[in-house]
TrEMBL record, chain B:
Part of the ABC transporter complex LsrABCD involved in autoinducer 2 (AI-2) import. Probably responsible for the translocation of the substrate across the membrane. The keyword Membrane applies. InterPro entries: ABC_transp_permease. The keyword Membrane applies. It is a multi-pass membrane protein. Pfam families: BPD_transp_2 (PF02653). This is Autoinducer 2 import system permease protein LsrC. Keywords: Cell inner membrane, Cell membrane, Membrane, Sugar transport, Transmembrane, Transmembrane helix, Transport. The complex is composed of two ATP-binding proteins (LsrA), two transmembrane proteins (LsrC and LsrD) and a solute-binding protein (LsrB). The chain crosses the membrane at residues 12-32, 44-63, 70-88, 94-117, 124-146, 166-185, 211-230, 242-260, 267-285. One of its GO terms (molecular function) is transmembrane transporter activity. GO terms for cellular component: plasma membrane.
Amino acid sequence: MTRILIRHETILAILFVIALFLMAAQSDRFLTTANLLNQARLMTEVGLIAIPMTFVIVTGGIDLSVGSIMGLCAILVGVFWQNAGLPLPAAVGLSLVAGTAAGLANGIIITRFRVPPLIATLATLALYRGLAEGISQARSVRGYPEWFAQLGQGQILGIPTQLWLFALVAIAGIFILRFTTFGRTTYAIGNNEAAAEFSGLPVERTKLLIYTASGFISALAAIVFVSRVSTTRSDMGNGIELEVITAVVLGGTSIFGGRGMVIGTLIGLCLMQILQNGLSLAGVRGDGTTVVIGAILIVAVLISNILGRFSND
Amino acid sequence: MKARSFHGVSSIGQEILLVVVILALFAVVGWINPRFVSENNLTSIFVGNAYIAVAAIGMSLVIISGNIDVSIGALIGVLAVISGLLVTNGYPVWFAWLAPLLIGAAINTLVGCLIAYARVPSIIATLAMLSILSGGLITFTGGQWISGLPGAYQLAQFRLLGVPSPIWFMVGMTIIAALLMRYTAFGRSVYAVGSNPEAARASGIGHASTVVKVFAIHGAIAGVAAVLFATQLQVIQSTTPVGLELVIITASVVGGVSILGGVGTVVGSTLAAILFAAIGSSLIFLNVSAYWLRAVQGVLILATVLADMARRRRTG
C-alpha cells in the first residue's frame, strides 16, 4: 500500500518537474523568482483549504461548502468592521469564529443527523452563500487600512506573508495526519467506518473536528483573500471547492477515502497552479483554464482508479 | 412499508404536503398583496420556471438511481446557446429545437459511462463537467449574448388552447415520466439500482446500463429545458445561469426524492419547482430583497433532508 502511495507521489513529482521545464522553455517570464513567488501567493487560499479537505476526503467525506463559508466570512469582516463599527482585529476574530461555527454546523448535520456529507454540504453551500448575499445585499466593502494589506500583499524576509501562514498550516497538517492517533483514526474511518466504530475509535468526534477545522481554515482563507484584494464581495470563493478537490484528488487522495497524504496534496496544488500560470502566459484566458482543471480532475480520478485496481489484484 | 416506498408510493404524503404549502402560500401572500394572485403574475411564475420543473424530472431520475448531477445548470446554458446559434445561422427551427436533445443525451451518455463503467463518483464526474462546460461556454462565446432570434423559434411563447406551451411541457413530461417510473421495467430498475445496487446486480438488473440510460434520458430532458429556457426571451444569455443546478437539485429533493436514492417521484419534484418559483416571486411582492432567495433555498433543502433522515430512522 505504501508502495502505491510512493509511486503515485513519485509520478506526480516527475510530472511536476517536466511541467516546470516545459513552462520555462515556453516563456522566459515563467522561471523567475518574482513570478514563482507571485504564483505561490495566488495559490495560498486554495492551498489552505486543501489541507483540511485532505482530511475530509481521507475519511471518505467531502465538503462542498468551503467556497460559501469563504464568501460568508469575507462579507462578515466587512459588516462587523464597517457597519457595526468594531475595530478590524475584532471583526477578523468574529469572522473566524463564524467560519468555525459554520464548519461545526456541517459536522453536526453529518455526524448527529447522519446526512451524507455530499448532501449536507451541498445544502449549506446554498445556505451560507445565501446568507452572504442576503447580509451584503450585493454591496462590497472597500477602504481597508494599510496594515491589514500586509497579510495578503506584503512580505516577510522576502517571502509573501501568507506563505508563512500556509507553511504553518501545511506542516501542522502533515504532522497530524502522519504522526498522531488522530491521523490514524482519520485513515481508519475512511477504510471502514463501521469497523473503526466497533474498535472503539472516536469516529463522531474525529469527523466533527475535521469539518470544524475545514470551516475555520476556510474563514482564514477568506481573511487572506480580503487582505490580498482589499475588498469584500459576496461572490468570493465561488467555485473554489472545485479547485480544492481537484488539488487533493490529483495529489493521490482516494475519493473513496482511506488513502492520501498532505504532501501529495501540496504537489497536486503546485502542479495545478503552474499549469494555470503556464496557460495564461501562453495566452489562454481564465475561463479556458477552468476547462483544463475539470479535465485534469477526471483524468486524475481515472488514473487513481486504474492504479487502485492493479494494487487489488 | 418498505415494499410500498420501493414504488415511491409513500412519498404521496410529501406531494399532498407540497400542494397544501403551495395553496397556503398563494392564499397568504395573495391576501397581503392581491396582485400576487393576478392572472399575469401566476402565468409568469409558471411560464418562467417551467424549464426548472422539466429539468428537475431528469434530476429526480438521477438522484433516485443513487447519483447526483451538479453540471445540469452549465449543460442547460451550453445547450441553449447551441440552439440559439443554430437558428441564427440559418438552420431550420425544428433542427434548433431537436439538436439540444440529441447533444444533451450524447454528453450525458459520456458522463454516465464515466460513472458506471470507469467508476468515477458522480459528484466528481459532474463537478468536472460543470467546470468544463461553463468554462468552455464563456471561452467560446466571449460572453456575447445571442439576439435576432426569429419569431417562429420562440417555442416558449406559443400557446395551445390559451395555455402557454411551457406549462404543457411541464405537465405532459411530468405525467409521462411518472408513468414510466411507475409501470415499466426500466422505472423499477432505476429504483432497484438506487435502493440497493448489490441486490439489483444479484437479481440480474444491469447496474451500469441502467445508470447510463438514466443519464442519457436526463441529458435529453435537459435539452428540452434548454429550449424552453432559450425561447422564453428575445435574447439568450451566453453565460451559465448561476446556481441553477442547486435550484434543480433542491426541487428534486424537496419534492420527496430521497438523497440516499431508491425513493421518490417526479410529481413531487415538479410541485417543489412550482413552490420554489412561487417563493421567489412572493419575496418580491412582500418587498423582501431577492438576495435572500438563496438562503431560503438552503434552509428548505436542509430542512427537507433532515426530515428525510428522521423519517428513515423512524421506519428503520
